[in-house]
Structure formats: structure tokens, C-alpha cells
Specification:
Distance between the termini: 39 Å
Radius of gyration: 26 Å
Mean pLDDT: 91
Helix content: 25-40%
CATH topology of one domain: BirA Bifunctional Protein, domain 2
Number of helices: 17
Largest sheet: 7 strands, mixed
Structural class: alpha+beta
Strand content: 25-35%
CATH class of one domain: Alpha Beta
Length: 489
């Protein structure tokens, strides 16, 4: 990472903390590694992103329904899914720093450095070597690659490495009143299995016909060894997943449809299309016959935000085998029983949050010939902005605060609002710019005469005079979910 991109990422992290979006978990106790809390504005933004996803999946699609499955699940589920035996990452330790790293990520970081240094041929060859080693599950080869390319520990700066070995990422705990009689269970490492084990429940009670989908938003837990890149890689995180059940033989057609649909969903938020790319998986998971990541160009390089996978019928077959319950669907159109195939779309909500935050944070130079000026602004799409509008009385006297409060009390029934009467009006605008508030409403002396106020638009900084009785409909139109959802139709 260059100094410029490193500074940009540091600005994102510091802005998120300074304005109440994201805090280090347990910070007064020196924090807990790779665990974060969402502050007052972060919680609002996160909830709005969940609402956008839920509306686009469940509300707009008649053949998709949502569920909320439990975090604790029967331990045999994780045996059936392959997580007990195969949910591992290749880890390597540095003997001097005592730090542990994912071997493949150390190599990927080296590939990024080669590309940034203009050594594209070296980067391509290293990528091929990495892919070959991963495909062959060749752990000694991974260590050899690290040594051949002089990859050092970021902390100690040395190449004193251990052998590469596999490390299971699931958190285990005990369920039961007595330690001796307790059963070992796991905190779920993904939300997908809660959908698969409820496939028949939803299909029968909802009278669902293939093709149909089940959507879910929920927490998942992975014992990530590497705590880095802020909320990009955490031990406790949130997923937004769709499992779409289709007739065998049609899965790749649906895979392409969902691949296109999901990128369109991201771009509707106002992101630069050049910041996104598809990255096809070279090494497919054992259950998949196609897989792609939607990646975003963060300050530290392109990283996955969402995955689309054609999972075949692996999951339902496994649960049929381990539970001894038939997981079949009778298709009246072809008069046939079969186990459906599945196309999955999986978004990391925390990564999406970071994507939106990084994409929206802008430093603008507003200098003129007469004076130097600048501002920091979060240009969130108005529909997802944590605060929709702020109300300012121009002064703290002459009845202006009372009038502003009167307007605030009416509008807060429909919108998340802020009231601010401290400091000069320009400073108040800058504070709202910094948290992404799209509209500021100023109550001045003219308001008392003709019941009009000034609306200031965040992005253009233009102002217009409007009647108070029109505010609800004006703000409502500007921040409406329709402005986002219409783009997806």
C-alpha cells in the first residue's frame, strides 16, 4: 500500500470514529482484536443498508421470502455441511514476531505490490503459482512461494517462518447446564445452513414453487487469525444471503442472471462502475460448479464485497443424508421429484458498509480567488443517509428556536432528523456534511413572516426557499426508497 492510499484508508477509519460510525469494541479495555461496535450513526447507516437489501430481495420479488434462523444449530449440521472437517485456512507463523498469518493472503499482498510497482509479469506468474498450490492443497508449496519471493513478516521484517498448516475457523462452545453433560455446539460460521435446513418448512408453508428464494440477514462468527483492514475482516460479522432454488440444469442460467442483478444493485447506490469488477474463482469449492466475487477497489486494493455461487444440490443432499429426511421437491410442470439446485448470493454487510463509506467520503476544495476553503463530505445516497435532514434556527432568539422545534416535531414522525443551534450557520453545514446529511433546513426571520424556510442541498450546496407545509412531501420525495428501487426494476 502506497503512502497516499495508506493515508486515505487512515482518513476513512478516523472519520468513522470521530463522527460516531464505528468504534473499536471494548475500547476502554484496550479493545478486542477484529471486533467492532457500530456507533449512533453507524447503526443507522447499517440498518438502512439492510432495509435496502431486504426491500430489493423480498419486497420486489414475489418468489422470494425471508426468514430469521437461530445462531445455535444442531452440531451435525456442520458435519453435513463440511465445516467440521474442511472449514480451514492455510496458516503460517513468524517465529520472531510470534504473529500468525494466512499464507495465501501474504502472497496476495505480494502480488498487489508487484502490480503497483509495474511488475505485471511477475504478478501474473505469482498468481498462477498461488492458484496451482491452492488447487492442489499443496501446503509445502505455499511456504516455498513465500520464501522464493522474499516475503517478510510485516511486524518483525524477518523470513523466519514455520511450516504452513490448516486452522479451523469455527468457534466452539458448550450447550447444557452441567459441564460434564454439555454438548459441543458451534457459533454458526455462515447463515446459509439455516436456510437449507428450513427449505421444506418454507416451501410447504409458503406453497412456494420452483424457482424460489429464501433470504436472510444475520450474524456469523469466524475465528479469523488476522485482524486487519478495519471492518473488512472481523470475527463477528453480519451476512445478507439469498439461496435461490432452481430446477437442475437451469442453475448456470440463473447464476448469470443473479451475477448481473447483484452488480446493478451495488451501482444503484451511486458508486463509480470503474471501482467494481468481477473476479471468477480459479479454485471452486467442492460443492460449486461456478463462482464469482464482486470486488470493490478499496484503498488497499480490490477485495470481495459479494459472492455469487452455483452450489449445485450439494447442501440439500448432505442434509438429506445426515438427517435421513427427504429434501425433495415435486415439480408439477415436469411431473418429477428432484433435489433442487441452488444459486447463492452472499453480501458481507460490514464490507458493504465499508464500501459505501469509502465511496462516499470526499474531500472538496472550495477555495476561491478571495479565500481558501474546503470541506469533508459523506455523499451517501439520500435513501441510506443516517440523518435525512437537519433543522437550524438562524439565531437562538426572536422565537426562531421555537419555530424550528415546531417543524422538527412534525418531520421527525417520518424522518430521522437532527436539531442544531450551536455555532455559525456555516459550521453547522460542515458538521452535517461530515455525517452525510443530504438536506439542511434553516429557519430565519422571514420564516416568521411568510412560513417559508431555506433548504440547502448537501452535494450542490445550492439553496431554495420553500413553504413549511410542503416540507414533508419535498423531503419525502428526495429521500424515498423508490429512488433506489426504481433503478432495479
Amino acid at each position: 500500500m502506497s503512502k497516499q492510499t495508506d493515508d486515505l484508508f487512515k482518513n476513512i477509519v478516523s472519520h468513522a470514529k470521530e463522527y460516531g460510525f464505528v468504534f473499536q469494541s471494548s475500547e476502554i479495555y484496550d479493545g478486542l482484536s477484529a471486533v467492532y461496535d457500530y456507533g449512533q450513526l453507524g447503526a443507522e447507516l447499517k440498518n438502512n443498508l439492510k432495509t435496502y437489501w431486504w426491500k430489493s430481495m423480498v419486497q420486489l420479488n414475489e418468489n422470494i421470502v425471508g426468514i430469521d434462523s437461530a445462531i445455535f444449530m444442531h452440531p451435525t449440521i456442520w458435519k453435513a455441511s463440511g465445516h467440521v472437517d474442511g472449514f480451514n485456512d492455510p496458516m503460517i507463523d513468524n517465529k520472531d514476531s510470534k504473529k500468525r498469518y494466512r499464507a495465501d493472503q501474504l502472497i496476495e499482498d505480494k502480488i498487489d505490490r508487484y502490480e503497483k510497482d509495474g511488475k505485471s509479469d511477475k504478478a501474473a506468474q505469482l498468481q498462477k503459482d498461488l492458484d496451482d498450490a491452492l488447487n492442489a492443497d499443496d501446503l509445502p508449496r505455499l511456504k516455498t512461494i513465500i520464501e522464493e519471493h522474499n516475503i517478510v513478516c510485516p511486524v518483525s521484517g524477518t523470513k523466519n517462518w514455520t511450516e504452513v498448516r490448516q486452522f479451523n475457523l469455527m468457534f466452539a462452545t458448550q450447550m447444557g447446564a452441567m459441564a460434564d453433560g454439555a454438548e459441543q455446539v458451534y457459533l454458526r460460521p455462515e447463515t446459509a445452513q439455516g436456510i437449507f435446513v428450513n427449505f421444506l418448512n418454507v416451501q410447504k408453508t409458503g406453497r412456494m414453487k420452483i424457482p424460489f428464494g429464501i433470504a436472510q440477514i444475520g450474524k456469523a462468527f469466524r475465528n479469523e487469525v488476522i485482524a486487519r483492514q478495519f471492518i473488512m475482516r472481523m470475527r463477528e460479522f453480519e451476512q445478507m444471503e439469498l439461496q435461490f432454488f432452481v430446477r437442475p440444469g437451469t442453475e448456470l442460467e440463473w447464476y448469470e442472471k443473479w451475477k448481473e442483478t447483484r452488480l446493478k444493485w451495488h451501482l444503484a447506490l451511486g458508486s463509480d462502475p470503474a471501482k467494481y469488477r468481477y473476479h471468477d474463482h480459479v479454485k471452486l469449492a467442492h460443492y460449486a460448479n461456478a463462482a464469482v466475487d464482486i470486488e470493490y477497489d478499496f484503498p488497499f486494493g480490490f477485495k470481495e464485497v459479494e459472492g455469487i455461487h452455483s452450489r449445485t444440490d450439494f447442501d440439500l443432499k448432505q442434509h438429506q443424508e445426515f438427517s435421513k429426511k427427504k429434501m425433495q421437491y415435486f415439480d408439477p410442470e415436469i411431473n418429477q421429484n428432484y433435489i433442487p439446485y441452488v444459486v447463492e448470493t452472499s453480501v458481507g454487510l460490514d464490507r458493504l458498509f465499508l464500501t459505501v463509506f469509502a465511496n462516499s467520503l470526499v474531500h472538496e476544495d472550495l477555495s476561491t480567488e478571495d479565500k481558501q476553503d474546503s470541506r469533508v463530505v459523506l455523499k451517501f445516497h439520500p435513501a441510506i443517509a443516517p440523518v435525512k435532514a437537519a433543522i437550524f434556527p438562524l439565531t437562538k432568539k426572536d422565537g426562531l428556536p421555537e419555530k424550528a422545534r415546531e417543524i422538527m416535531n412534525k418531520l421527525k414522525l417520518d424522518f430521522n432528523m437532527q436539531y442544531d443551534e450551536k455555532d455559525a450557520i456555516g459550521k453547522r453545514y460542515r458538521r452535517q456534511d461530515a455525517i452525510g446529511t443530504p438536506y439542511c433546513i434553516t429557519v430565519d426571520h422571514q420564516t416568521l413572516e411568510d412560513n417559508t424556510v431555506t433548504i440547502r442541498h448537501r452535494d450542490s450546496m445550492e439553496q431554495e426557499r420553500v413553504a413549511i407545509d410542503q416540507l414533508r412531501s419535498i423531503i419525502g420525495d428526495l429521500v424515498s426508497w423508490n429512488n433506489l428501487l426504481d433503478q432495479l426494476q
